[in-house]
Design brief:
Length: 119
């Protein structure tokens, strides 16, 4: 028995609304969407967070990142505008400790870094 909900989804023992799957990745609808478009790109390999990526994960990391615009283009078209989020660590808001990229779109976004003068 695993305690990782995404591993359960990947193994098929938990349900999901799946948009795309290949031998390395899964793309599912977020169960609690925060915008009209909110999907998660999830590697099949259980990597707890970005902090746990290893040099041998280079090809997977590349594929994960390259999949983001491909899915975004499918959902949103060629001029896709979207926010990507990778929360890393509980203090940064990570709640599922299996690496995943959020793709969020379809509503206005505030640039919090700009509004706080961080850059
Ligand atoms: P994070 O807080 O960055 O770890 O993101 C975890 C995301 O997973 C949240 O947006 C949750 O709504 C989503 N989530 C949790 N459980 C499920 C599930 N069973 N199916 C789909 N999305 C889920
Ligand atoms: Zn997992």
């Amino acid at each position: 028995m695993t305690s990782c909900v995404f591993c359960d989804i990947i193994s098929g023992s938990a349900p999901s609304d799946q948009l795309y799957a290949d031998e390395e990745l899964l793309v599912i609808q977020d169960i609690h969407p925060v915008a009209p478009v909110h999907v998660l790109v999830i590697p099949r390999k259980h990597i707890p967070s970005l902090n746990h990526l290893q040099p041998e994960d280079q090809a997977l990391a590349s594929r994960l990142l390259l999949t983001v615009p491909r899915i975004a283009h499918q959902l949103l078209g060629d001029d896709a505008a979207y926010r990507t989020i990778i929360n890393t660590g509980a203090a940064a808001g990570q709640t599922v400790f299996h690496l995943h990229v959020h793709i969020i779109s379809g509503r206005p976004f505030i640039n919090h870094l700009l509004t706080r003068g961080l850059y």
